[in-house]
Design goal:
Rossmann fold, N-(1-d-carboxylethyl)-l-norvaline Dehydrogenase, domain 2, 47% helix, alpha/beta, 13% strand, six-stranded parallel beta sheet, 3 domains, 20 helices, binds nicotinamide-adenine-dinucleotide
Amino acid sequence: MSFREYAFVASVGVLMKIAVIGTGYVGLVVGACLADLGNSVKCVDVNTEKIELLRSGKSPIFEPGLDELLERNIREGRISFTTSTAEAVKEAEIVFIAVGTPQSQNGKADLSHVKSAAEEIAKAMNGEKVIVNKSTVPVGTGSLVEEIIKKHYKGRFHVVSNPEFLREGSAINDFLKPDRIVIGSSNEEARKTMEELYRPLGAKMLFTSIESAELIKYGSNALLATKISFINEIARLCDRANADISEVATGIGLDKRIGPHFLRAGCGWGGSCFPKDVKALVFMGEEHGVELKIPRAADEANMEQKLEPVRKLKAKLSSLEGKRIALLGLSFKPNTDDMREAPSVEIANALRKEKAKIVAFDPVAMEEAGKKMPWLETAGSAYEALEGADAMILVTEWNEFKELDFERVKKVMNNPLVIDGRNIYSRKQLEESGFEYEGIGK
Ligand code: NAD
């Protein structure tokens, strides 16, 4: 079936054949969701272990709801997995590139995976297809992908930029119910194909140029990260000025022009996106002769913020040498096992430098954390980590930590000191229960 016929058939409800190159947090969720909508999806990864695991019906990542989604679509034959890009591309009408775009040494986005994926796609091209960049890529990458494909393939094809806004921990819901779907394309047919693909979601679609779509993603992430860094700085001022950041943020957020979201003070942002995307945006600015002072400052403020709990702990205990510190939460945020740029790593390293004895617990991220910090001692539960502790630092606001039984905690700790890196506890309640409490800006 030709690309045009396919686009027509899709418009009357027949489903599409899709290849997803890169089966990570984004590629796997996108692939599983598109399969669940009825499309036929083949996911590709260079990591053979990942593909073998997926073939055996197991997800290589922790993401709520993903296991069930995979199980159903594998069973019903809508999703399959391969290490061969060629095999997946040859059968597909739409090819998603969802490989990683990590940070390189100087902050620039490393496009080596995108380039090699584009080259593999190019070599396998056997007809008119839409090549969709889902990875977060610097402005101009759409043209780069086009150039790479043109080197190997002389037929018609269309490159589209379709940045992804899902959040780990709520990725499936975010993908299926997005605030908006951004489709950057200069080709009407490709635009229509994407519109048909996403039509079942009933979401607002924004059609732009490829370059604008690429920048929308970086602009969004940098603005969200800036909002958090901003409120974290106000929280530091609250600490000194005897104000309460929760009250201050509530008051600020009630202004409709600002809104209440991303105004929670804490021990800094991390994860696979904000840190690298903010740095990549600053670098992109430099390449285009534009100094982006605000994202740069947001990043610098965040680096400092990650160590705020350690500063607070030192202020309370003076020397940390030999002190037993319970770290609750390791993943960069709740409901994920992702440890990329997690504040817990900075915190644990700083405590280690101070010769503290750290015992950590996380509901799902301990295996991933062990890869980054093989020296880290872990416990089987929050209470086990708190046994004999001279202080607890709450790093990640998992629900189970919100529900701790503080009477029990008080009994097992050696010294009832709580450093609440995410402001999830009530100072009043903890102080009434005999704890010393330190939040962020409270
Ligand atoms: P990831 O590291 O979890 O997954 C990337 C996968 O691509 C890996 O499994 C890797 O083995 C595979 N890969 C690399 N080169 C390949 C190739 N040539 N062929 C096939 N597979 C290849 O990354 P991720 O978190 O899924 O992110 C992917 C992209 O999406 C990034 O650009 C990221 O910035 C963006 N993004 C991520 C999120 C998120 O929350 N993780 C959200 C929105 C956008």
